[in-house]
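Quarterly update from the structural biology core.
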Amino acid sequence: MAKLEKNVHVTEYLNQNIKTLSDLREVHKNIKETVESLGQQLHEASSSLPSEIDYATQGANNTQTEVTDIQHRKDNLHHQVVEHVRNQQDVCKELEKVTTEIQQYQYYLAYLQLIEEVDKMSSDIQTAISDIQTAMLTDVTSNAVESFQTLTHVYHKHSGSHCKHLLKFIKDTILFWYKILHEKLASDFEETLKSVGWPMIGNTVKSPPVHSSQHYELLEKLFMSLLAIQLPQSVSDKQDELLLPLQLMVLPLKKRFKYHFYGNRKTNNLEKPEWYLGQVLGWIRDHSTFLTKRIQPLLHKSAFKSISAKMEFIRGMVILVTDKMKTDLQDIMNDEHIFSHLIDEAILFDRELQGSHGYPHVLPCCLDVLTAGEAFNGWILIEEKFAKGKMDLMLSSETAWQSQYQGLMEMDEANLPECAESFITLMLTITDRYKSLSNPENQLRFVDLQLELLEEFRIRLVQVMDKHDPLGEQSCAIFNAIYYLTEVLQEWNNSAHFVQLQYFRKQTQPCEDSVTDEVSGMLEGIFDASIFLLDKLTEQMFKNLVHYMYTDIHAHSHLYRKQRWNILPTTKDSLGLSINACEMLLVLKDHLLRVESLLNKPIFTKIWQRLAGQLNKMVVSEIIIPNQFNETGASQIEFDMCRNLFPLFGEYTQKPENYFRE
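Predicted structure, tokenized:
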């Protein structure tokens, strides 16, 4: 193939360059010159190639020589460095030792400088204290207060240091000067408070004295100075203390409180906790305006602008109350009536603080004393005892199964028995008493008590119901009570209060099964178990009552069911009610009227619908199917059903025939 292509190329060349034979010589000459030129070029290339290869080889040899030389130089330098390091090790060790000593001396120097700084600040405070009266009254940020603040900042800055003795020295210094500054400022502040009519008690409230602006200016300066020396939490041994000026404002009231409600005073009566609780509420009311208008603006100017002066004052009052309750609690718990009275008054006191004064429930309150340890167990026991006692009274009352609204209203509540309404009121009262407790665990203890009371009330209703026939007044009253109680519990189940408690219970007692089980458990209501038992009892009562009515009607329908429908004679007169059906329909009508008057409408609706279904089956299975009918018999039974039976149910539905379609 290649040879063929070559021949074609030669042929094309000859065709293009040789037109005549005379051109052949010229072509030969050109080809010869071309061959000679190519030969010359090949010769030159062959002669120059060895020289280039030699040059490249020489360059590689030179490079290798240089690399070897550099390697030798590197090895020599490495040996020199190793030798130098070996020679300098002793020097380095000595230098490291000197450096360590220098660092140690620097630490000592910083330690001494800090001590010197603390001593200097102490000297500054000492100098200012020599004329502290003038210093404090002329400048809020006096030298003494400024130096004291600097001292506390130094302590805070070095609080993470491992120099425990140094920190103790600074802290002791702070506490030393705090005591001195506190005594002086507190004395001046108390005198100034008196000059502006604090505390506002008795005549002071009725006719407050007139004060000059200088008194309030002095009050402001002292108040701000006291805030400035407020000990930080890292220094103070006491936690959650009141602001220092508020402590001093509470102090005169604290003295009065202890004077009247401790010791052998007649006002210190364990049976009358409302005396000191009422006194505290009165003090809060009397001082609220002054705290809001005079003290709160001062806090807004300070670093404590987020704190409410009124809430801080109330917190101080609550501390007085809780201390008093803790002192009396052991003696009070020995008498359940006094203890119960204390609980009632404490709940009212806490409710008044939160409702009238906006006291946050997250702050300490007097109920914290009653929800701790044995006191809380005693509270639960008293609540249980009193609740069960009230349950006994409401169920044994002569009017327990009567309605308070009988004849007064046309509502479902008209048939609600008194005991059921009283029981729901009891449950609401218990909820209202524990609803303000801040700890969900404590609230759940009361919920468990409510669940226990619900179960006991249900059992009591069953016991009473078993003693009466299903159509008796008491049985119907119990039916109404159970139905009403179920509706109330379902409503409570969806209320925010009980949903939150159930969520907390599920969080603290997580389900160990699958995620699906855990989610479904979260959706369960807190009263689901009680509702289930009540629904079960309700269904049983439906069955019993319908069965009782149906059995009675069935017994009075004997003649009607045994009637021979295929031999009824033809009559020209208009059809009338079968004589044998009269007794059955009268009994049915009496039962419907009685049940309607005794049961709530939702219950009665389900009753007559179920009864209609039972009668429908009876007519079909015991009258129509077993018998044969002539034309008169068919017309007669149609007349009895459509013109007499259906209208009895027509009082409750527009289309009673829909319930007799079989």
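Residues 541-660 form a domain with the Methane Monooxygenase Hydroxylase; Chain G, domain 1 fold (CATH 1.20.58.670).
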